[in-house]
């Protein structure tokens, strides 16, 4: 029986701990998948979990593309390889700070395995979102500027693109996290990636996603080849700032 807390990366098997904590503390990114198909009803459960996630303004503008067809997956495999190769040659070339080289080498090996066996991926889930055109009247803009003040209003004008991207992401990623939790709870392996954005135009063309629709991740899903285990994360004491930084 563990005596620590799941927040520190321990596996929570104490009956006093909520089962959700055990799920979260063992929800590693699982990239080595068996080729066995995942039943549609399980994939629907994952999407249901995602839909239960919060959505900004309760607009619920999300859409999910679910790919299981082998022909489509084979068409996407070369795109995936190009994206992964681009990542490993740049951002992914070096281990993150605080991660030892051996551990990072194992992670890269799993990434390369997924790249080389991508055509055998049982399912892909691509979350999409698109904000509706804003409905803002002149009077609303006046009140907006008065509330923020001149300096903040001018600053918001400069970061509007970033603000919009974060606003859309905040409507999508809580649902994606629900999806990952549901996958773990069902014994399915999954991991979230955004490497497809290197070639988003090509991915959208291959999947028939409308030009104006934004894609936010590619989530491979399948039955794991390995075992779930404790995640390794920085302890809370290193990351929390109480009241002020």
Number of helices: 9
Overall mean confidence score, pLDDT: 89
Order of helices and strands: HHEHHEHHHEHEEH
Distance between the termini: 35 Å
Rounded to an integer, what's the Rg over CA atoms?
Answer: 20 Å
Protein name: Nitroreductase family protein
Domain Nitroreductase: 28-223
InterPro entries: Nitroreductase, Nitroreductase-like, Nitroreductase/BluB
What does this structure look like?
With 245 residues, this protein is α+β, with helices and mostly antiparallel strands. It is 46% helix and 8% strand. The chain has helices at residues 19-25, 40-51, 70-89, 101-116, 138-148, 150-158, 160-185, 200-207, 236-239, and strands at residues 63-67, 123-129, 189-190, 214-215, 219-222. The model is unreliable at 1-14 (pLDDT under 50).
Please outline what is shown here.
With 245 residues, the protein is an alpha+beta fold. The protein has nine helices and five strands. The model is unreliable at 1-14 (pLDDT under 50).
Secondary structure elements and pairings:
Layout: H1 19-25, H2 40-51, E1 63-67, H3 70-89, H4 101-116, E2 123-129, H5 138-148, H6 150-158, H7 160-185, E3 189-190, H8 200-207, E4 214-215, E5 219-222, H9 236-239
Antiparallel strand pairs: 1-2, 2-4, 2-5, 3-5
Helix pairs in contact: 2-7, 3-4, 3-8, 5-6
